[in-house]
Specification:
single chain; 277 residues; alpha+beta; 2 domains; five-stranded antiparallel beta sheet
């Protein structure tokens, strides 16, 4: 093989290298842009409140496999047109999300302008416009697990007077809420616990049920989780992380080969300059 053929072979090799280098760069640029954008968003996630914002896109939610539960329980709040519904582990008042990751609703009572919503582990007290007044749980002395919530007439031991209040029952005890000091007073076992006085259970019309299921889905996926999955490749089940790993390896390979090509070309230019002198 003469010098001409050797030079042609070397040129073809360099052209092939440049073509592969260029096409590989073009192929991974979309992944690099994704990593850059999502990285910036994650770096400012707290300021953007991404953990409190939710993805509303129907096709993205379907991609994740979210499906609304079919079983719901709804109460009509006394003397109002408001409904409170539980679907899955979420409780809504109309379009307003009240509670998440909660246990099933035990009862809903409206007493003297306040609304008491009880689950087995919590008692939440709201105004008529559903502004939260107080949230009670085991850590704040609420007897648990709550089995019933009811109106109750509490006999005050000190004054002998009576106070209309609420009471909860656990497995074998009754506890009345003393409103003045906001404490639970255990009632004697001989006291007959009255029938549970709760708002009427209702069945939602089909269109309202669909709306409730939509609101449930729209509160499943935070923007923070979605962006994290985009950044790591987890949004593509199974192979996503491996694809991101491969892109990372290709970026490293491009950086190394690009540096070597630049160094080789720089050396050749210096030798040509010496030869020309």
């Amino acid at each position: 093989m003469n010098a001409y053929h050797i030079k042609q072979k070397e040129r073809r090799r360099k052209n092939l290298f440049r073509m592969l280098h260029r096409r590989t760069g073009f192929a991974i640029v979309i992944f690099l842009v994704n990593l850059a954008i999502t990285g910036i968003l994650l770096n400012h996630s707290e300021e953007l409140e991404l953990h409190q914002r939710f993805v509303k896109s129907e096709w993205i939610l379907k991609w994740y496999g979210f499906k609304p539960p079919q079983d719901t329980i709804c109460f009509k709040v006394q003397s109002t047109n408001q409904n409170v519904c539980q679907i899955g582990k979420m409780i809504f008042r109309e379009n307003q999300l009240l509670l998440t990751n909660t246990s099933p609703i035990i009862s809903l009572l409206k007493v003297e302008g306040l609304i008491y919503l009880a689950t087995s582990e919590e008692l939440n007290i709201y105004t008529e416009s559903f502004e939260l007044v107080e949230s009670l749980n085991r850590n704040s002395s609420l007897p648990t697990p709550v089995e019933t919530l009811s109106l109750y007439t509490l006999a005050m031991r000190d004054s002998g007077s009576k106070q209309e209040t609420i009471a909860v029952s656990t497995s074998n005890k009754v506890w009345a809420l003393e409103q003045n000091e906001f404490r639970w007073i255990e009632q004697p076992n001989t006291v007959l616990f009255p029938n549970q006085a709760k708002n009427d259970l209702i069945e939602l019309p089909p269109n309202q049920l669909v709306g409730l299921q939509t609101r449930y889905l729209e509160n499943q996926l935070t923007q923070l989780k979605f962006i994290q999955d985009l950044h790591s490749g987890s949004i593509i089940a199974g192979a996503g992380k491996w694809i991101i790993d491969l892109v990372g390896i290709l970026v490293i390979a491009l950086a190394i080969t690009g540096f070597l090509a630049w160094q080789r070309r720089n050396r050749k230019n210096r030798l040509d300059a010496v030869d020309n002198t």
